[in-house]
Each structure stands twice: as C-alpha cells, then as structure tokens.
Amino acid sequence: MLLIERWADRALDGNIDATELHETCRHVAAAANELESWNSFMAWDPTQLASVGHALREFRWRLLYGLLVIMSIRDRMHALRLAGPLASELEDLLGAVRTWLRAEDIDPAASGVALRHRIDTMEATLHADAGWTEILTASLLLRVRDLTQLRQDGRQIERHLRGAGGSQLKLMYVSDAQMSSVRLIDWRMAAWSALAAGFAILVCCALWILGGWTDGAFAALELAITCSLFAGHDDPAPMIFAVAKWMLVGLVMDALLLFGNLPMVHTFPTLVLALAPPFLFMRPVDGGAVYLVCGHDDHGYRRAAAEP
Question: How many helices (H) and strands (E) does the chain have?
Fold first, then answer.
C-alpha cells in the first residue's frame, strides 16, 4: 500500500510522468501476482484461508484498482494544469489529501471522513451549466474520494492481517461488480515448463543410477521440488539458482556447526555458547511474524505481518 500512497501523492501534485507511472504499474502488478500466489497456497490450509484469504483478495483488488484511480487523477490534474491555475479551495483540499497520505501516526478512518466531507462540500457548489474546468474538477473530486476510501480500506486490511484475521473488516469502498481473478493460461509455456522439469529430473536420476551416487535420491527430490515450485514463473532460472545458492550456504554453515562446534560441547553452558550465534543473529524478525508481503524495499512495498 505504501507504493500506491507514494505515487498518489505524486499524482495529486501533478509531478508524475508516464515513464514513472509505467514503472509503478510493473511493481504493483508484481506485488499483486505475489498476493495471488500466496492466496493459492492458502487453499491448502482452510483455517488460514478463512481468516486471511478473503482479506488478501480484497487487498489485491484494491491495490490494482488504486493504480487505475491514480492514473485517472494524473490525467485530470494534467488537464486542469493546462486549463490554468487551480482554485485555492481545490489546492487546499489536494494539499490536505497529500498530507493525509504521508501521515503514519493518525487514524485514517476519522481523517478520511473529514476529507470526504470537504469533498462533498466542494461538489455541492457545481451546477448543471458548469464549464470544462468545472467538469474536470468534479471528475477529479470523484477520483480523490475513491482514493481516500481505497487507502482507508488498505490500512484496515493491513491491521486485519497483522492481527491474524482477528478483527472484523468493515470496508468503505464497495463495487457493484462481482470481482474475481481472471487468469491467463498459457498452455505452451505450461507444457514447456513440464518438459523442462521432467527432463532435468531424468538427467539427475540417470546420473544417480549410472554413477552409483549414494545421495542421488535427495538430489532428484530437491530438483523435482524446486522445478515444481517455480515452474509457473516466466523465468524460473534466477529463483532456482537463488535457492541453490542459499541451500549451499546453509549446508556450509550446518557443516561448521555440526563438525566444528558441537564436537567440543560437553556441558550445557558450552552447548548454549555453541548454539548462540545462529539463535542470536538469525532469529525471526518481530518475534516470529510470518510476512505476507515483503517489507520496505527500493520499490516501496509494505510488509503486512500475520502472527503465527
């Protein structure tokens, strides 16, 4: 949600160009794809699906729709800037919305209601014989109202996820359309992924059997799992190489601990000292929270945690 808030702030200021918006679309699409993948995995855990699955679907849809709202705001702001300077009342309202988007320590619900009240007051001044500028202003106000509702819903869903689905969702933005995920099935890519995974497993099994490899079964098993997990991605090779790299790092660290430290352990205090480094420096973040969305990075993604 942080990514949407950041670019909404830029759009309200009229300081976002098409290239930046295109990059935003790519990042939001990637985040939405990750949310859809997590939601698919949750289908195997009915308890989590009931408490978190619905919230994830709602968050994903609002993430995508928020991008459309930002694009609409950008177009209307550009047209209004070309038509002339903005009215002081509209400038004040947009400034208040931008301040609200950047604020982290205020209640988004109460402040959102106040902003929508100001929007209603400005809309009441429009009349049937309004000109082009007034029509653009009315359209902009509609989109700004949508933005406030979507941002408020997004914040509420994040709190819901952090509470492991304990709170009740009362969403502001309700669409008349029935929202559902539309998936593109690429049969050729699916067949190619299956053939590539099958061929890799056959080669590994051949090396295992013909070479008399004692631990070849484990290699074939890991290869099958890795290929299956990332077969749905357009380019699974970087992720497979990353898994192999960190698996190798883990094996080296495990070997150092198992063959270097533990043989010198004879008492409980020495056992504590031997196990202290991995427990102190590789402990779970935030007390073992399970992150549903990756934490703040260069693209501005916000992480939403659900306690295990």
Answer: 11, 2
Cα 120–chain centre separation: 32
* CA atoms within 13 Å, Cβ hemisphere of 231: 21
Convert the pLDDT of each residue in 179-218 to its tens digit. Answer: 555 666 778 888 888 888 899 899 999 999 998 888 888 8
Give dist(CA 140, CA 136) in Å, integer: 6
The range of the structural domain enclosing residue 35 comes to 2-173
Long-range contacts of 182-191 (CB under 8 A, 24+ apart): 189/234, 190/231
Segment holding 291, helix H or strand E: strand 290-291
Considering only CA atoms, which of 168, 146, 165 is closest in space to residue 4? 146
Count: domains in the chain: 2
The string of pLDDT tens digits covering residues 227-273 is 888 877 777 888 888 888 888 888 888 888 888 888 888 888 888 88
d(CA 306, CA 276): 27
Task: Kindly state the tokens that stand for 11.
Answer: 């759009």
pTM for the structure as a whole = 0.57
- Under DSSP, the state recorded for 301 is -
> 238 and 102 in one domain?
no
Cα–Cα distances (Å) from 15 to 1, 12, 84, 147, in that order, read: 19, 8, 16, 17
293 lies in some domain: no
CB-based contact 307:290 (threshold 8 Å): yes
CA 298 to chain centre: 13
